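Internal tracking record. Fields below are filled automatically when a chain is submitted to the structure queue. Please do not edit lines marked as system-generated. If the sequence contains nonstandard residues, flag them in the REMARKS field before resubmitting.
Queue: standard
Priority: normal
Entity type: single polypeptide chain
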Amino acid sequence: MVELVPVERKISIREEINIIKKRLVEGTKSIKGKIIKEDSNYIEITFGSLLKSRLIGEFWVSKNTLPKKAKIEFKSDSSRTEINIIVVHTHKYGVMWGYTETYQKALEETVEKIADLIQNL
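SYSTEM-GENERATED OUTPUT FOLLOWS
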């Protein structure tokens, strides 16, 4: 069975954690995400719908509908904030034959959307 590889991206920005988190929280709806956990140095966002994917079938739903989770960690020093973004699939059970490549691309696109949101707002 083919396993999906979590997609990771590291970014370094010259802004405070609070400003970056505010951008991310405000822009989450624009990238169709839902914040499920927020901490001083951590945010977790879910994307897609496991229920919809199961009812319609993963093979037929769009890449945006496939269930995913982003884990975003912040580390700050005196001049820069390091941001680590990890996106994983949340496909709970069943066979993933036939759409692993599409799912992997969806994970990569989600990382890019989050990185763009953080850097461009």
